[in-house]
Amino acid sequence: MSLILELTGFAFTLCGWVIIGATLSNSYWKVSSIHGSVITTSTLYENLWHSCAEDSIGVSNCRKFDTLLALPAYIQVCRALMITSLTLGVCGTLLTLLGLKSTLLGPSSQSTKTKIAMTGGVIFILGGLSSMVAVSWYAARITAQFFDSFYGGTKYELGYALYLGWAGSLLSIFGGGFLTCSAYNQQDRDQYDYSASERRIYTKPSEIVTSAKDYV
Fold first, then answer.
1. Going from the N-terminus, what domains does the chain have, and what CATH number goes with each?
2. Which of 20, 106, 173, 200 could form a disulfide with 168 if both were Cys (CB 3.0 to 4.6 A apart)?
3. Where are the transmembrane segments (predicted)?
4. Tens of pLDDT along 53-101?
C-alpha cells in the first residue's frame, strides 16, 4: 500500500508540475468581458508577460510588457511565485527520484531514501502553495476590478489558464502530501521493526537462562 501511495503521489506531482508550467506560458490569464462593453469586435487577453488583442477574424496582435519596474506589484510577485514553483518542482522531482523505493538511484539505505522522499514531498507542497497563491491573487485582482463600479478601465474575466493553475497546484499539493504520508508510514514501520529486533535481542539471554534452570 505504501508503494502504491508513493507512486500515485509522484505521478500527481509530475502532472501538477507540467500543468503549472503550461499555465505560466498560457496567454489567457484574463480575457476582456463583453458585459457592459461597447467594443465587441475584438477580444483582449493578457498573461504575466504580454497583452494581446484578437479581432473578429481571429488575427492576434501581442505586445510585451516594456519594463519590469513599471508593472504593478502583484504581477511582479506572481511572476516570482510561479517561477519559484517551477524551480521547486525540479528540485522535488530530483529528490523524489532518489528517494523512491522502486528505483535503484540514490543511497542504498532504506531510511535515508525515506527521508529524501519525504523532503521531496514537502518541496512539492511548497511549490504547489506558491503557484496557488499566485493564481488566486491574480484572480482576486480581476474579480475586484470587475465588480468595482468606479473602475474606468477595461474589465476582464477569469481566463482558463487560471483554472489550469488551480488544478496543477492542487495536484502538486496532494501529490506531495501522498509522498510525505508514504515516507512517514515507512519511517514508522522501520522504527517498529528496529524496536522489535531490539526486543528479540535483549530477550534471548533471559530465555537461555530460564531454559538452563529448567534443565537443572
1. 2-215 (1.20.140.150)
2. 20
3. 7-29, 73-100, 121-140, 160-181
4. 888 777 888 889 877 778 889 999 999 999 999 999 999 999 988 888 7
For the chain, give the number of residues: 216
DSSP percent split of the chain into helix, strand, coil, nearest 5: 65, 10, 25
Q: Which amino acid is at 61?
A: N
Residue type, 166: W
Q: Which residue has the cell 469586435?
A: 41
Q: Are 155 and 121 in contact (CB under 8 A)?
A: no
SS3 166: helix
Residue type, 79: R
| Beta strands at 60-64 and 156-158: parallel, antiparallel or unpaired | unpaired
Return the sign of the alpha-carbon dihedral for residues 89, 94, 95, 101: positive
